[in-house]
Amino acid sequence: MYRAATELWRVVTSARVPIWMETTTAICGVIATKIASITNRARQVGDQLDRGADEMAILLLLERLEVEARAAGGRVISMNGNHETMSVAGDFRYVDPGAYTDFARWKNWFELGERWKRGCKLPYETLPKVKVPPQAAARWVALQPGGPVTRRFLSRQPTLLRVGSSLFAHGGALPKHVDKEGQAGGMDGVNKAVQQWMLGDGSKQPGETRGRNSVVWSRHFGHEEAATDCELLRQTLRAAGAERLVVGHTIQPDLEVTHACNGRVYRIDVGMSAGCYDGEPAVLEVLNDQEVRVHTESNATWAGWVTNTFWTPKTKSKSR
User: Fold this and answer.
1) Which residue, 74, 175, 199, 318, has most beta carbons within 10 Å?
2) pLDDT-based confidence at 6, cuts 50/70/90?
3) Which helix (H) or strand (E) holds 296?
4) pLDDT at 303
5) DSSP class per residue in 256-280
């Protein structure tokens, strides 16, 4: 598997032990082969797209891990980040040129499969003609609202998620996003609105996925501690019934996991993608929903899945 196909955020739970992490090819094989026996639940917190030329490989890998996890009585749940919602909205400004070729190959195989279905008198789908630059046509056909790839993968992914006392969001969450009495209808309301838009029901792109105050774009809690509004964070967590917020999106200084507000928010974007800083993979582990530890790849024993060297996250943080 290509490295680009595994440069992902992950959240892994072994029994009752949740772990938030990035991964590379070196440990991807461990995930694929060990998930049935080691992990019970896993969470991936967004930005599967715009991370290189092998976008379909990323999506298929996560889907395969979900199948393996279900077979073991667990789950792998991927989440939507700003690059998923951008792609569904037709914003391709961060697309790797190789990804266009990747989707052109997908389109050829998809149309071949549909011709076979038609020949076998089975229900089949005809891809629509789209008025976009030829290079981007296959990717847009696949990822537009109601497109085959969006329906199969992205529309099934939550945009907000709470596991135990941990709240997950790609960029950040504000009280208006998680308050059940609010206009968005809380986490369920946000997830439903995004799903319906992605399924192509004709609705507009939800506001919770647009702008600097949205779930996938917010950096309210991703900057250095002096710039983090701890009172706003407290209000968000109280409305969500959570104790901590875990976010990506904002690459951290020194490419290390950081936290703020007395451990109420953890920033896990260490710039691991080769398209960013090619940083060292790191893992945020929460034991029994209370004790927080951080692991780094250089101190890890990945063959056994769990590292045996721990260190405390730094408090200092700033955006890049």
Assistant:
1) 74
2) very low
3) strand 291-296
4) 36
5) --EEETTTTEEE-----STTTT-PP
List the catalytic residues.
83
SS3 content of the chain, % helix, strand, coil (to 5): 40, 15, 45
Name the residue among 197, 198, 194, 116 with its Cα closest to residue 152. Answer: 198
Could you give the CA distance from residue 8 to residue 286 in angstroms, rounded to a whole number?
19
Predicted confidence (pLDDT) per residue in 232-255, tens digit: 999 999 999 999 999 989 888 888
Q: Rounded to the nearest 5 degrees, what angle is found at the Cα of 15, between the Cα atoms of 72 and 169?
A: 95
94-106 pLDDT tens trace: 999 999 999 999 9
Q: 37: exposed, middle or buried (C-beta count within 10 Å: 0-12, 13-18, 19+)? A: exposed
Q: Residue-wise over 269-290: b if at least 16 C-beta within 10 A, else e?
A: bbbbbeeeeebbbbbbbbeeee
Altogether, the residues listed in the chain come to a count of 320
